[in-house]
Every structure is written in structure tokens, then in C-alpha cells.
Specification:
This protein is of the alpha/beta class and about 350 residues long. Helix content is about 40%, strand content about 15%.
Length: about 350
């Protein structure tokens, strides 16, 4: 989700859920070492808990990136070994590293040795002609041996040749059973699941087996579902979501962004996934995606967009109820699974 889950996106998503772990876009270690680290790493304190997702294959560079990031106060460092994009492959990181488990093992061990927060890994079940049932157990054993605090598994292969990144999210079949088997065989290891999960009902079902669930594009395109995460997944008391407060908070935040030289649509482009299924949602999207790009437009445009929606009427289509999960079951918010 590169170019999607930036700091403005994460600030917005945090207003919808207090507990879900948010992930940054994948940031390459070289960029942190040599690039504009303040722009790449700075985030609003309201985003906590938030994980920094790194890309890289050089243990030394990853160690330096982890040390630099320590000053910014992230709650977790995640190494992405699941992204199949061409530009990621050309840098020898992402999903292509599934072919080099020993390299990933060395990277994780090095990162763990210097990190003051948990170090985790996000991976696929395999790539190309690999047989997942053969390679995944060995990969997990290496990650655990290297000290990884958790492994998040996208339950699909990645085909690095012949499929686009978008096709890699849909075409390779999901193999939840294999991921479940990994959890049964590793009961003391935190294992989370990702891939094809679109509702909280599905998340709750996975949490009966897995330790965590990661949502990516589903939580971006239909961000309203995050308003129920704290109650349905984390067991908080049921309450009506305060939409008026959300509107006011995002107007105030957008005013700060504009005052510091940003543009209104830097904020509003991440909000168009709200109100999916509500009467007026189409007009809401039009206002935030089109009118917010006009020069000199006021952040009060956000209030106009909210006013276009019949919030009291609720969504016309319900995704279905999700039963509460165990209080001990955390949910990952993959707002960042750079896939």
C-alpha cells in the first residue's frame, strides 16, 4: 500500500479505532539512511500504536535504519518479505526474498539485536514454483530462530513473473488451511493472517485459530468497518460512533496540514472510503476527491461532504454481524501491507 497509508491516512484511521495496530507504507532502508528521514519517519503521536514497515536485504543497512527509527518512537518494526512489485524486486527485497530465507534470517537477527521494540516479519506462503507446504515451515523456523516476535502470513503465493502486483492480490488461490496448520504446529509463536479478508465477521472467524488478522485494502476502501473494531475485536463496550466529532477532528487536522504548506486533498483523498453503502456516499466521494483539489479550497469542505450523507439512516447494505473475539486476540490493521 505504498503511497496510500501515509501519515495523513494513519491519523484519519486512528480516529476510527483506538486499538488496531497501524502500519506505515513500506520504507526502504536506503531511503532512511540517505534520504529525508524526517519526512519519511515523522508521525503524529495520535497514531500509536504504529509499526514501521521496512524493506531491505542488507543486515547492516537494516540495522542502521532501525537505529535511526528508534528516535521516532515506533511501537514495532516490521520487515516486508511479501511485496511482489517490480520496483521492489529490482532492489532485492520484498517477496523475492522468500527464495533467500537465510538472508531474511540474518536480517531479522541483526535487527532484533539492536531494536528496543518488537521485530516482526510479513511474508507470503511462497513464490513462483515453490511448494508452500515445503518452504513455509522452514521459513517460519528460521524467523523464530532469528528472534522474530511475530510473523504475518499473506495466505497466497506471489508470482513474480507473469502477474502484476494487483493480480498477485487476487489470482493466486488463498490457502488458509496451510496458514492454520502453521499455527497449530507453532502454538507458542504469534502468527497473524492476511489476504482476502474483507469483513470483521471473517476476521473474528480467523481469530478463533490465529493470533492476529491484518486488513489492507478492505480497511482503506471501506474504512467505516474500522469503527466497530474496538467493540467486536477488542471487547470494548458497544457505543454509537461520534461522526460529528470525527468531522470536527479532521477539519482541524486538515487546517494544520494546509497551514504547514500541504494541500487539502493530501488529507481528504484517504477519507473517500467512509460511508460505503450509505445514502449520499457517492456525493461524499465526489466532494472529497474532486472539489478538494481546487486551489484555495477551505478545510470546511469536509463538513460539506459529511452533510451530504444520511448518516442517521445507516448503511443500506450490512456486511453481517461479527461475533466478539477473545479479549486476548489482537487485530492487525494492515494499512500498510505494501502489496
Amino acid at each position: 500500500m505504498i503511497d496510500w497509508t501515509d501519515r495523513h491516512c494513519r491519523y484519519f484511521l486512528r480516529q476510527l479505532t483506538s486499538h488496531a495496530l497501524l502500519y506505515t507504507e513500506m520504507v526502504v532502508a536506503d531511503a532512511i539512511i540517505h534520504g529525508p528521514r524526517q519526512r519519511l519517519l515523522a508521525f503524529h503521536r495520535a497514531e500509536h500504536p504504529v509499526a514501521l514497515q521496512l524493506g531491505g536485504s542488507d543486515p547492516g543497512k537494516l540495522v542502521e535504519a532501525v537505529r535511526i527509527a528508534a528516535d521516532y518512537g515506533y511501537d514495532e518494526i516490521n520487515l516486508n518479505v511479501g511485496c511482489p512489485s517490480d520496483r521492489v524486486q529490482s532492489g532485492t527485497f520484498g517477496a523475492c526474498l522468500m527464495r533467500e530465507p537465510q538472508t531474511v534470517e540474518a536480517c531479522v537477527a541483526a535487527m532484533k539485536a539492536v531494536s528496543t521494540v518488537p521485530v516482526t516479519v510479513k511474508c507470503r506462503i511462497g513464490v513462483d514454483d515453490q511448494e508452500p507446504a515445503e518452504v513455509l515451515p522452514d521459513f517460519l523456523a528460521r524467523m523464530v530462530g532469528a528472534g522474530a516476535d511475530a510473523v504475518w502470513i499473506h495466505a497466497r503465493k506471489a508470482w513474480l513473473q507473469g502477474l502484476s502486483p494487483k493480480e498477485n492480490r487476487d489470482i493466486p488461490p488463498l490457502d488458509y488451511d496451510l496458514v492454520y496448520r502453521m499455527k497449530r504446529e507453532n502454538p507458542d509463536v504469534f502468527l497473524g493472517i492476511n489476504g482476502g479478508i474483507t469483513t470483521l465477521a471473517e476476521a473474528a472467524a480467523h481469530l478463533k485459530v490465529m493470533d492476529g488478522v491484518m486488513l489492507g485494502r478492505a480497511s482503506y476502501h471501506n474504512s467505516t468497518l474500522l469503527t466497530e473494531v474496538d467493540q467486536l475485536i477488542y471487547g470494548e463496550a458497544e457505543r454509537d460512533f461520534d461522526w460529528a466529532a470525527l468531522c470536527e477532528t479532521m477539519i482541524a487536522y486538515a487546517e494544520q496540514v494546509v497551514a504547514s504548506g500541504g494541500r487539502l486533498n493530501h488529507v481528504t483523498r484517504h477519507m473517500v472510503g467512509l460511508f460505503q453503502g450509505y445514502a449520499g456516499a457517492r456525493r461524499f466521494r465526489q466532494i472529497l476527491s474532486s472539489e478538494a483539489t481546487k486551489p484555495g479550497i477551505s478545510p470546511m469542505l469536509i463538513a460539506e461532504a459529511f452533510a451530504a450523507v444520511d448518516i442517521a439512516g445507516g448503511p443500506k447494505l450490512q456486511a453481517g454481524p461479527a461475533g466478539p473475539a477473545s479479549d486476548a486476540s489482537p487485530a492487525g490493521e494492515a494499512v500498510r501491507a505494501a502489496e
